[in-house]
TrEMBL record:
Enzyme class, first EC level, given as a word: transferase
One example GO MF annotation: MAP kinase kinase activity
Compositional bias ranges of the Polar residues kind: 115-124
The keyword Kinase is assigned to this record: yes
Keyword Phosphoprotein: no
Name listed for the protein in its UniProt record: mitogen-activated protein kinase kinase
Any one Pfam family match given in the protein's UniProt record, by short name: Pkinase
Family, per entry: Belongs to the protein kinase superfamily. STE Ser/Thr protein kinase family. MAP kinase kinase subfamily.
Gene3D superfamilies (UniProt xref): Phosphatidylinositol 3-kinase Catalytic Subunit, Chain A, domain 1 (3.10.20.90), Phosphorylase Kinase, domain 1 (3.30.200.20), Transferase(Phosphotransferase) domain 1 (1.10.510.10)
Coiled-coil residues: none
PANTHER family: DUAL SPECIFICITY MITOGEN-ACTIVATED PROTEIN KINASE KINASE 5 (PTHR48013:SF9), DUAL SPECIFICITY MITOGEN-ACTIVATED PROTEIN KINASE KINASE 5-RELATED (PTHR48013)
Organism superkingdom: Eukaryota
Amino acid sequence: MNEPPFTLRIHVEGQQDMDWMVQPEDVTFQRTLEVISQLLPHSTITAFEYEDEDNDRVTVRGDDEMRNMFADYFTELSEEDRARGMFPPLIIYPKLGKSSQVRNLLGLKIKTSKSDSGNEQEMSTAPPDSKLDSSSDSNKSIHQILACGSMKEEDLQYVQVLGSGNGGQVYKTIHKSTKSLMALKVIQLDLTPLVQKQILSEMEILHKCNSVSIIAFYGAFFNENKISICTEYMDGGSLDRYIPVPENVLGAMSAHIINGLVYMWNLKILHRDIKPSNILVNSTGQVKLCDFGVSTQLVKSIATSFVGTNVYMAPERIQGEEYNILAEVWSLGVTLFEISTGKLPFSSLTANMTPFELMDCIIMQNPQSLPSDKFSPDFVHFVNLCLQKNLRQRISVDRLLTHPFVKRNEDGNSQLVAEYVKQTLSQRAVKS
Ligand SMILES: Nc1ncnc2c1ncn2[C@@H]1O[C@H](COP(=O)(O)OP(=O)(O)OP(=O)(O)O)[C@@H](O)[C@H]1O
């Protein structure tokens, strides 16, 4: 079939949807049931349903029916969405099998245990732990806290400053009751309570993002004139501190970066600030994107306080055109160029340029290619395609996923990344 990856959205009545990025030709019916069982650990699931073009429910009980479901999905996609590489989530509805548990009319299990209030649904409203490779107890308890929506300053103990950026500081913290490490970004912003509320509500969507390539979001709160955003902690920090990264390692990292971006693009969420400092790594070889600009209001509030064109912005964005995925592809190209060479792809760029000169440089200049004597032809070609000023020539999401540089690295070799991160961290420790 060779169709691009897209999101399967698992919908269970009364629970938060779980999004799962799948590659249609790789995912099996059995694997899908396993993922569903993470959401419904106490139920026996043997089938699920989806809605066809007439909104009739069609049951899927095996691999053949699953292939038909994918075929239906791709047939129904509009040409426009396909051309833009936008794939809306395909919603599936697990069919709950019968068990000895007491059930209500909706087929949901009813608590019958001691602490029971009588008619409470047993299914938790906590966001599902869909980090497919992380089912630790600490993760579960973190999600339970989130379900209460009660992340507060007093829950966290500050350990150290991890870094600071435009307008904020990031701290390593310990979540007291679960003893989990978390990162807390604190930004000072003078906003009305109404705007604060709007920001928090816009950030809610992050609870629905479940991808191993996206930093987990644990919650956000305002305290006086500061917003605190609590996320997963990554012990390797951000990629700007690793520059230059050898091509083989960066190739493996790119698989995770692209996976994260495509996951969010499929949810119609744009990052808006792709750059090395927004890509985090850890010593288990995971690579994750952070700082998605999901809250328009927050992006606006930060932008009015800390103005700036940054060197990763696409020329068309600087010129005020509509911001879209292709602008993100450009930023990805600048990011990969910088991480691999330690330089930016604009020859006349200097550190002391005014914002106007910087804008002029990005708009007027043709970006350089990676040196062909230092990097593989595939990598040079891929970055060149990301850095096409002409939007028609810039690589589309479809072509991006099938490009030889991406294909060659698609397993994301976590072991290689882990070794590299650990080695770099220990070299840093020796130096300091
Ligand atoms: N979840 C995290 N885990 C570990 N380190 C982090 C985490 N989030 C951020 N950091 C570290 O904190 C630094 C500062 O992050 P911050 O997002 O404030 O700024 P930035 O991305 O460098 O710049 P800007 O504010 O322009 O986006 C990062 O460069 C990174 O090294």
